[in-house]
Write a sequence for this structure.
């Protein structure tokens, strides 16, 4: 008996597997740093290796949840913006309220502060989505300095070059140079 995937237990299991593997990957990365701080490099390496394995498992389940492939960049940006929006408008606001009511003022304050960061993430992803949809990722008004992320070549102009004249990497490796130092 075939079941509609969207309403299936298999989909719920894939979501749980993705969440569990993702969380384990991050957690083992933390553990690796802690082991390294404690002078246990072999243990750190094992945690890092396992973290990488868990990440591969998470990607496998994620792809099943998306029809067997990774979503296109615009879809990724939409999903990321929606997730960040939920986090700052609902999740962290609600968490802060509960923590405050339960007498955990410091945790409530941290939830609010992280909520502010999630708002900035939402705005950044939304702006990037707008640029992808309008074809303006590699084009700006006026003259800009574009930097190749592979070799450091600087190009001056309204658009990034299609190919880096120094290292040959495609336009995808260019970003508008930031002088925020």
């Amino acid at each position: 008996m075939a079941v509609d995937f969207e309403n299936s237990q298999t989909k719920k299991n894939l979501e749980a597997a993705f969440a569990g593997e993702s969380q384990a990957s991050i957690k083992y990365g933390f553990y690796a740093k802690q082991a390294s701080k404690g002078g246990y490099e072999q243990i750190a390496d094992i945690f890092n290796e396992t973290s990488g394995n868990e990440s591969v498992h998470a990607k496998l389940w994620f792809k099943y949840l998306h029809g067997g492939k990774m979503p296109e960049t615009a879809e990724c940006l939409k999903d990321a913006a929606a997730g960040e929006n939920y986090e700052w408008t609902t999740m962290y606001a609600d968490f802060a309220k509960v923590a405050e009511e339960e007498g955990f003022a410091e945790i409530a304050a941290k939830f609010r502060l992280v909520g502010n960061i999630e708002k900035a993430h939402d705005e950044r992803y939304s702006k990037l989505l707008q640029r992808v949809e309008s074809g303006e990722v590699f084009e700006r008004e006026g003259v800009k300095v574009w930097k190749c992320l592979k070799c450091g070549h600087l190009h001056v102009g309204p658009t990034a070059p299609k190919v880096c004249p120094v290292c040959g990497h495609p336009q995808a490796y260019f970003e508008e140079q930031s002088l925020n130092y």
